[in-house]
Design goal:
Blueprint (H helix, E strand, L loop, with lengths): L6 E4 L2 E3 L6 E3 L3 E10 L13 E6 L10 E6 L2 E7 L10 E6 L4 E8 L4 E9 L9 E9 L6 E3 L4 E3 L2 E8 L2 H16 L11 E4 L7 H13 L4 E4 L26 H11 L3 E6 L3 E2 L4 H6 L20 E2 L5 H17 L4 E4 L8 E4 L2 E4 L1 H18 L4 E4 L9 H4 L4 E3 L8 H12 L5 E5 L10 H6 L5 E4 L11 H18 L6 E5 L12 E8 L4 E8 L5 E6 L9 E6 L5 E5 H6 L2 E6 L4 E8 L1
Parallel strand pairs: 15-16, 15-26, 16-17, 17-20, 20-23, 23-24, 24-25, 25-26
Antiparallel strand pairs: 1-14, 2-13, 3-12, 4-11, 5-6, 5-8, 7-10, 8-9, 9-14, 10-11, 18-19, 21-22, 27-28, 28-29, 29-34, 30-33, 31-32, 31-34
Helix pairs in contact: 5-6
Length: about 600
């Protein structure tokens, strides 16, 4: 599929023309020769490799977005995730040809196991040094068979998105963002990257706590309020179907009452749900449908995998059961927002016509169909994606969500590198960033914590417990940040570009200084964030803005001091601004708005 951007979309449709079920044991969606580079040795400096490849360094929880370059020498190279490895590596790669200046950028729209294989063959027979031959495969990963096809069945694979650009890495990232906005996340509900306030287990979730959080949302001009994990009765308390009912002793006014309280005050309302997971004391499922639980690959056939198991959504009857659960919650409580969580990660299998089949492919084929049905039935509902934070940020899920959580790790300094890396993979309006939750407050200046909201879609948690007053100094900083978001960034919608002045950091304890820029596509504004990380010391440097128009004049504001000046775009782009920071985990934001 060509969409006018620098990125193409590719998928396969495989039809079984035989009279028996056929096994598909390897499934490469996009493969073959990628590029021939003539005599690369003559075009490179001595010791340089022709290719380097960038991808998220780790697949582990809490380290999402840790982009790093790796040298690619001869022979093979593999990048993979979500099968043998953990599930928190966003499925993408960036391949740079140093001789020709091209970047190949690729993302896999699949929430299951994936694998990218590269074979670089440098032919040295030629006296001039030989050509460089690059071939590759983008494939699904898992135990064989990956999938099966019944007689007459058409198996449609997930989509692969591949682009080629000239320029730096940000040229490739922004080209992919343009493609995602145009051809992947095309269903955005009729609000624009709204400001959210949530209430979860970090604070008391009783009715006084809910009222306090709603008041906080109204004070800061939030557009919706959501109850996170903890609103629903625990399985041992529940004797009704599905277990998705509220704590009766905690919510005497009921979820309907909370929703109407929000609506009367102009707030949209939403609930959290984790429909794919079952516990051993989840009464209805375990009593009536114990076989609905997925097996682990190392379990005996027919064994029930509990507690804390995924439902076997690879089976059509279980997929329908899960759809009914989700449909019932959204419809019963008339939700404006539905937060979907996913905290299980197990490799499972089942028998199909006497053949043992790995479940990933059918699981996500059915789960995507569930999401498609719900989006069609509730077109104005915001679908908010979450999976232990960043466990499922791929374009397969994002084509069915309005935005996504990218991590559950909010502590500085790693919180910055997560923001930095995931805004390479996804447009910033799809990337949720939060302040006041998940112990993110225990490290870093308040500026460091709050300024990151400007480089994604902001969410707040009430900064005080019920009955106490907010720190006025913190409130003043947060008001400044949200003013920039609501008056400068939010009106631009999806018409912004990201510039990553600093690409690479240590994935667990990032050091030095991180610089990130979010600019309106035509140069109407540019927001520059400078974040001192661990062991940063004193930072003093001129930074040239990449997103300004050299022909325009800008009103420049330093958020820390509030000082402003009128500066030409030519000066901002070519001479830059001198920015100083003192000490680790401090930050500055510079906002340049065209006059």
């Amino acid at each position: 599929l060509l969409d006018g951007t620098a990125v193409i979309t590719r998928w396969l449709e495989i039809v079984n023309l035989t009279q028996t079920r056929r096994r598909i044991s390897e499934l490469a969606i996009l493969s073959g020769g990628l590029q021939i580079t003539e005599r690369p040795d003559l075009q490179l400096k001595p010791g340089d490799n022709l290719y380097r490849i960038g991808y998220m360094e780790t697949s582990n929880w809490g380290c999402e977005g840790a982009f790093r370059w790796h040298e690619m020498t001869g022979d093979g190279y593999v990048v993979a995730g979500r099968f043998i490895r953990d599930r928190f590596r966003h499925p993408m790669f960036l391949l740079e040809n140093r001789a020709t200046g091209q970047h190949f950028i690729c993302q896999i729209g699949y929430s299951g196991g994936w694998r990218c294989e590269f074979d670089y063959n440098h032919d040295t027979n030629c006296s001039a040094g030989g050509d460089g031959l690059m071939s590759f495969k983008v494939k699904l990963d898992g135990y064989a068979p990956i999938a099966t096809a019944a007689p007459g069945e058409t198996v449609k694979t997930p989509e692969v998105h591949l682009g080629m650009t000239f320029g730096d890495a940000d040229a490739a990232f922004n080209a992919m963002h343009e493609h995602i906005r145009q051809s992947v996340v095309t269903h955005i509900a009729p609000w624009n990257a709204p400001l959210e306030v949530g209430l979860g287990g970090e604070m008391d979730m009783d009715i006084p706590g809910v009222m306090h959080s709603i008041d906080y949302a109204l004070e800061y001009g939030a557009e919706y309020f959501i109850l996170d994990c903890g609103w629903n009765a625990q399985p041992s308390e529940d004797t009704t179907p599905y277990n998705w009912i509220p704590h009766t002793d905690r919510y005497e006014m009921g979820i309907d009452g909370i929703r109407e309280y929000c609506h009367e005050r102009g707030l949209k309302f939403g609930l959290w749900m984790e429909p794919e997971r079952v516990f051993s004391n989840t009464a209805l499922i375990m009593q009536e449908h114990p076989d609905f639980c997925a097996n682990r690959y190392d379990m005996a056939i027919g064994a029930v995998n509990v507690p804390d198991a995924p439902l076997a959504i690879d089976r059509p009857e279980v997929a329908e059961y899960v759809y009914q659960m989700m449909d019932r919650l959204i419809g019963r409580y008339k939700l404006d927002i539905f937060r979907l969580d996913h905290n299980v990660f197990l490799r499972s299998y089942r028998y199909v016509d006497g053949t043992i089949v790995y479940s990933d492919f059918d699981y996500y084929r059915h789960f995507y169909a569930i999401m498609d049905r719900l989006r069609e039935k509730y077109p104005n509902c915001i679908f908010e994606n979450c999976a232990s934070g960043g466990g499922r940020t791929d374009l397969g899920m994002m084509s069915r969500a309005d935005h996504t959580w990218v991590t559950d790790w909010q502590k500085a300094p790693r919180s910055f590198t997560i923001t930095n890396g995931l805004t390479m993979a996804l447009p910033p309006e799809l990337v949720d960033r939060i302040i006041g939750a998940q112990i993110g407050h225990i490290y870093g200046s308040f500026e460091f914590q709050s300024y990151q909201l400007l480089f994604g879609r902001p969410t707040l948690n009430a900064s005080t417990v019920n009955g106490t007053k907010e720190n006025p100094l913190q409130a003043a900083v947060l008001n400044k940040v949200l003013k920039v978001y609501k008056e400068v960034i939010q009106p631009a919608g999806g018409h912004t570009k990201m510039y990553h002045h600093t690409l690479e950091f240590d994935c667990t304890e990032p050091k030095g200084t991180g610089i990130l820029e979010r600019a309106e596509s035509s140069g109407a504004f540019s927001v520059l964030g400078i974040f001192n990380l661990a062991d940063a010391g004193t930072f003093s440097q001129r930074i040239c803005l990449r997103g300004v128009d050299v022909s325009r004049q800008y009103r420049v504001t330093f958020l820390n001091s509030g000082n402003t000046a009128s500066v030409s775009g030519f000066t901002l782009a070519n001479e830059g601004l001198l920015v100083r920071l003192h000490g680790a985990l401090t930050a500055e934001v510079v906002v340049a708005v065209a006059e």
